[in-house]
Specification:
510 residues; 5-stranded parallel β-sheet; 17 helices; globular
Length: 510
């Protein structure tokens, strides 16, 4: 897109020499409401405000600062500024859905800066090489249940605040959804392992193979610690409403398939795989099955426009050979007497009125069904957290833990440690960066409570722009990069900028 500068639209005047210049009206007075004289002697006040990319980032990543340091070739300083607000760039530089780029002010001029690739570059360059000095545990103790992104974030910021932190993970490997939910082709295992090396170097105690309700209870954790943060994720798959109850070793959930594949299990998928669902788990399962040599079809009950999966992931799946059937819903699985899948009967759908999610509700067309042959069926129609071990202590909706605006869950008034929750355990967007933001916020609130601060006022003081993101640097009193005063509450958007001062350049694609 070519943008005409303002100067090209201005009226042109050629005086043919200075003697022909028109008279210029000038006033040395001051009209008070319109300073036409004294303003010449006033020095403008410089303020560094929040760019829109940082404002829309759930974690409040200091994008302007780390890129400015990158441009100066001061890579280590850029990395240090980056991990102030977003501590796992090697991970989020791969799997974040780039909210920052969607809000980049350059879009009004040419295209968004490739922020995610710059983040990944710094994360990979310093992962395993830059280790913070272990911090003395002078503060309260914090038990983190779950080692996914929310738990990792709470542990990181807890340690940066001086907490004594322990992460308990029920699986034998650390990382939660990062390790057993996101396929390796999107997030290499080494990238996750390196971030846990950093946490261990900071002094976080890591305890895999510890399950609440089996090895110890939530009450025991509350007794032995000052704070508890629940971040065990959403690892229970929802089941489709089949006609009958198909029993087959060739029908399993997307989470089960991705998790067992990540842990090294081998699947005999057969030649044809049908994936039912339209979220990111469905797309990850489809792309993983493609890599295992199967022909893959995805069936989704709404249109592509309503798919909750990220558009880039859908397009990547299509380019890899995944076939999509939209506006169809599974009715029945046809199996052989020995339990092998033969086909899935699908009903065609129409879109009706919007439901509570804001998307148009799918409605079956009476009698309009067809069958797709398949050897394996993978269902991925949604997940929910396993709350059984926590329901006697904290309130839940049955599908999520109930928390207040500080991420604190209601607990019995028994004098034991307060409980916080975040990530996929609570209602809200289920992305890695939102989980990181939740862990960060929970750690900050715990520290405020421990120090007796006014939590509501302090949260407002360190809020970034107009969104929910919080500045850890502001809370700790760390100096900003810019030399002038920082006004983090005011956001600068593209319509407030004079874009004529910028040159159009193509986006750098990694």
């Amino acid at each position: 897109m070519t943008r005409e500068p303002r100067s090209h639209r201005a009226r042109q005047f050629d005086p043919a020499g200075w003697p022909n210049m028109p008279a210029l009206n000038a006033s040395l007075g001051d009209m008070l409401y319109n300073k036409t004289g004294g303003w010449r002697y006033l020095k403008p006040k410089y303020e560094d405000k929040t760019p829109n990319c940082q404002n829309v980032c759930p974690a409040g990543n200091d994008i302007e600062a780390f890129i400015a340091l990158l441009l100066k070739d001061d890579l280590e300083a850029a990395y240090r500024f980056l991990i102030r607000e977003e501590p796992f760039p090697s991970i989020l530089g791969r799997v974040c859905f780039r909210f920052c780029e969607a809000g980049c002010n350059r879009i009004a001029l040419d295209d968004a800066v490739n922020i995610q690739s710059l983040e990944r570059y710094l994360g990979d360059r310093f992962a395993g090489r830059y280790m913070e000095t272990p911090i003395e545990a002078f503060g309260p103790s914090l038990a983190v249940v779950g080692s996914g992104p929310a738990g990792m974030s709470a542990a990181y910021y807890g340690r940066m605040l001086g907490f004594k932190v322990t992460i308990l993970e029920k699986m034998p490997v650390l990382g939660g959804v990062l390790r057993v939910g996101i396929p390796q082709y999107r997030l290499p295992r080494e990238a996750v392992a390196r971030e846990f090396d950093r946490l261990a170097a900071l002094g976080v105690e890591l305890k895999p193979g510890q399950e609440i309700g089996r090895d110890l209870s939530l009450t025991e954790l509350r007794t032995d610690n000052d704070f508890v943060f629940l971040a065990s994720g959403a690892h229970q798959s929802l089941a489709p409403d089949w006609a009958g109850s198909p029993t087959s070793d060739f029908v399993f959930s997307g989470l089960d398939f991705l998790g067992r594949t990540a842990l090294g299990d081998r699947f005999d998928l057969g030649a044809r795989v049908l994936v039912i669902g339209g979220g990111n788990t469905a797309i990850d399962a489809a792309r993983t099955a493609i890599r295992l040599g199967a022909q893959v079809t995805v069936a989704y009950r709404r249109s592509e426009k309503e798919m909750p999966a990220h558009p880039e992931e859908i397009q990547a799946a299509r380019e890899e050979g995944v076939v999509f059937h939209f506006l169809v819903s599974p009715e029945e699985i046809e199996t052989t007497p020995d339990g092998k899948v033969q086909a899935v009967v699908l009903a065609r759908m129409d879109l009706g009125e919007p439901d509570e999610s804001g998307r148009r509700r799918p409605v079956k067309r009476p009698g309009d069904v067809f069958a797709i042959e398949a050897d394996t069926v993978i269902t991925a129609i949604g997940e929910r957290p396993g709350l059984g071990a926590f329901q006697s202590v904290i309130p839940t909706t049955g599908s999520a833990a109930l928390v207040d605006g500080w991420l604190q869950a209601g607990t019995p008034n028994d004098g034991l440690a307060p409980v916080f929750a975040g990530g996929d355990m609570i209602e809200g967007p289920r992305t890695v960066v939102h989980a990181v933001a939740a862990g960060k916020k929970a750690a900050l609130v715990m520290d405020m409570i421990h120090k007796g601060l006014d939590v509501a006022q302090t949260l407002d003081d360190i809020r970034i722009g107009g969104g929910p993101a919080l500045s850890f640097a502001a809370y700790k009193g760390l100096a900003p990069l810019g030399p002038g005063p920082l006004n983090r509450h005011t956001v600068v958007t593209a319509d407030q900028m004079v874009l004529d001062y910028f040159s159009q350049i193509p986006r750098v694609v990694s």
